[in-house]
Amino acid sequence: MIFANKNNSRLTKEVYQNIIKRSRLKYFYLFREVDDTLESRFDLIIFHSFIIFQFFREMKIENSSLQQNLFDYMFKDFENNLREMGFGDVAVNKKMKVFMKAFYGRISNYSMGVEQYRNKNDKSKLFDSIKNNIFKDKMVSSKNIDYFVEYLILNIDSFVKYSLGENIKNKFKFIDEEKIDLT
């Protein structure tokens, strides 16, 4: 394994903090019609973590501890946030089950959407998944949904251009959110 020491926990934290920082960008909330709610922030965290997990899938990298550590770190952070909000053990356990189910459902939908795009050049599944998850089926400009479809694809493609080592060196830096051209 590539990551077998204390540097792995630092790397995991740095990659996760990159996901959090990106998920909180005002640009998404001010210019892309994402509601600034806890649920939307959760969805953007899952969305961005999916992009990184998809890199591992497309590069056929298995047994990387970074994947598991990132997943564990993310869910531990969710749990800690619930506790900080005052939820007790029983409520935290129930909420964590909901979060897990939501995570796997979203990851599955995004995965099927990427597969449909890769195999058939059809973005409709990704469009529907993003509309349902990030926008909760609210009426938004289809251009903003298209933006997130392109954003997801371009980020995955950007990561796939580089080796695991190069992406680690860059802490899985996402592309500039404002430079996506929908024309």
Structure commentary:
This protein has helices spanning 6-23, 26-31, 38-58, 65-84, 89-120, 124-133, 142-160, 164-169. By secondary structure, the protein is mainly alpha-helical. The chain has one domain (6-179). The longest helix has 32 residues, at 89-120.
Assembly state here? single chain
* Poorly predicted runs: 1-5
Alpha carbon gyration radius: 16 Å
Computed structural class: mainly alpha
SSE order, one letter for each helix or strand: HHHHHHHH
Mean pLDDT score: 92
The portion of residues assigned to helices is over 70%
Question: End-to-end span in angstroms?
Answer: 42 Å
Helices and strands, with pairings:
Elements: H1 6-23, H2 26-31, H3 38-58, H4 65-84, H5 89-120, H6 124-133, H7 142-160, H8 164-169
Helix pairs in contact: 1-3, 1-4, 3-5, 3-7, 4-5, 5-6, 6-7
